[in-house]
Amino acid sequence: MKGACLCGNVEFEIQKDSLKLYQCHCKLCRIQSGTFSNWATIIPNEKFQFLKGEKHIKSWVKDTGFRADFCRDCGASVPNPLRNSPYYWIPAGTLDESVKAKVVSHIFMGSKSPWEGDSQEVNVYEEFPGFEKHIACLNG
Ligand SMILES: [Zn+2]
Ligand SMILES: [Zn+2]
Description:
- The protein is built from two helices and ten strands, in the order βββαβββββββα.
- The protein is mostly beta strands.
- The chain has one domain (2-115): Metal Binding Protein, Guanine Nucleotide Exchange Factor, Chain A (Beta Complex), CATH 2.170.150.
- The strands form three sheets. Strands 8-9-4-3-10 form a five-stranded mixed beta sheet. The chain has a three-stranded antiparallel beta sheet with strand order 1-2-5, with no helix packed on it. A two-stranded antiparallel ribbon has the order 6-7.
- The longest helix is centred in the last third of the chain and has 9 residues, at 131-139.
- The model has no long low-confidence stretch (mean pLDDT 93).
């Protein structure tokens, strides 16, 4: 299976037929992903390879070791080597839409966002409802 950043400058490939994902709800992952959790997986190095664009990747490393790699051109999260382990961290949203995957764990639930799961009574649209309607819904 393959994956890529938004602009397509970074592409990678994983030698697996299906993936088990986790969601991390820690504050760092919330900020990095811009939403309530990071959806990701971790796979052995030998199952992963970049196809192109490694020179387009920028890396930010916190003193605790938390690392965020992203495409310098479009800002999308991209896979990164997991500290000093023989594994790669893979952000699930970058993967092909045909990928077979399921969530098997949630971690750092104690840090979850107060608005997470608050989606009982909402407007649901199969596609974009249109700019005017969307803005009115969010600012009404
Ligand atoms: Zn990019
Ligand atoms: Zn996290």
